[in-house]
């Protein structure tokens, strides 16, 4: 019957090919990094290493580039169909390297904000944004170290890898959403601090507020799409207990 045929066809009609989806996601990630850079350059005075607010400007750029975009790319490596056959080791190394790159950018981003606060005499770690951000970075560092120990070092027993794998996958998505929440709250906090005396107030929605709010929404969309890709059953690497998958 027609209804029966439609029922069978509808999942295929909604099916999005993985590689075009990834290309879109990559473009969205680059747009987020370009927009946060533009915001800091155009409205916040640019970049410097002198301990001023221009040193702080490295913080949002490095955090979005590392903790969201590069981390999202690392999370999606095992969804690439080419990873489903052949040796896993090169893909493990790529996954771990992208995550390590994200971690290095994140640490530099933290250094920028601490340097700015200390040079200005501003207290550290008092806002919800800072608590959530630091918790995310600590969780991320634990995740990377545990993943390295369990999956890249050759002496981890198979039962330990099997036990830890679902935990690693769960925290991968969790850390990404915490990163997105930290970025969005940070954008909001920066706008509240910056758009007051001597500038057009945030509540009057100047161009900077529209631009930065839009950036926050795009970061949120990026995070949701990565988590959706990770959760999609048809894009998951087929599980195998072959010797190859245990190398």
From TrEMBL:
CDD domains in the record: Cyt_b561_CYBASC3 (cd08762)
Gene: Cyb561a3
Keyword Metal-binding: yes
Subcellular location: Late endosome membrane; Lysosome membrane
Catalytic activity: Fe(3+)(out) + L-ascorbate(in) = monodehydro-L-ascorbate radical(in) + Fe(2+)(out) + H(+)
Protein name: Lysosomal membrane ascorbate-dependent ferrireductase CYB561A3
Role this protein plays: Transmembrane reductase that uses ascorbate as an electron donor in the cytoplasm and transfers electrons across membranes to reduce iron cations Fe(3+) into Fe(2+) in the lumen of the late endosome and lysosome. Reduced iron can then be extruded from the late endosome and lysosome to the cytoplasm by divalent metal-specific transporters. It is therefore most probably involved in endosomal and lysosomal cellular iron homeostasis.
Molecular function, one GO term: metal ion binding
Positions of transmembrane segments: 18-40, 61-81, 93-116, 128-155, 167-188, 209-231
EC number: 7.2.1.3
Naturally occurring in which organism (per UniProt): Emberiza fucata
